[in-house]
Write a structure and sequence with these properties.
single chain, mainly alpha, 2 domains, two-stranded antiparallel ribbon, 48% helix, binds zinc ion
Length: 151
């Protein structure tokens, strides 16, 4: 067994944790030791290099910021802290969920009002033709549409 096999296994496990966060670990892929030549005091995020070109995405380097927090044995800067990223993703998901729920609530309310308008028009027509108890008609329509007639 190669001395670094265990090391690689650890890194594969770490990658599985970080990839769903959109976070790539900076490591040496050309050596059996993933930490060979890596600045262990700096943030371990692999970041895309600035600059244009069709293949700019290929060029990555280690984040230049110093490592501030340790997660799973790796150092990260404030921006690439996996816990902070997870928190930001969770908060964004919460905001999307709240926006969706608000939208759904609004649509339900609009549908309810539309139904109530139709019922009100029918009631007015009925009263115009001499409905003998407009009071009970109004109460029934309100009840059918989730309104409290006594409110
Ligand atoms: Zn960083």
């Amino acid at each position: 067994m190669h001395i670094h096999d265990e090391h690689l296994e650890v890194y594969n496990r770490l990658r599985a944790i970080h990839l769903p966060l959109g976070l790539r670990i900076w490591m040496n892929r050309h050596s059996s030791n993933p930490e060979a030549g890596v600045d262990m005091k700096r943030c371990r995020a692999s970041v895309q290099d600035r600059g244009g070109g069709s293949f700019a995405w290929i060029n990555t380097s280690q984040c230049t910021r110093p490592g501030k927090v340790e997660r799973h044995g790796l150092l990260w800067c404030g921006q690439h802290d996996p816990d902070a990223i997870r928190k930001r993703l969770d908060e964004a998901a919460e905001r999307r969920k709240a926006a969706w729920e608000s939208h759904a609530r609004q649509q339900r309310e609009e549908a309810r009002i539309a139904t109530l308008k139709d019922a009100a028009l029918m009631a007015i027509r009925s009263i115009a033709k001499g409905h003998n108890c407009p009071f009970e008609l109004a109460r029934a329509i309100l009840k059918d549409n989730g309104e409290n007639p006594d409110a």
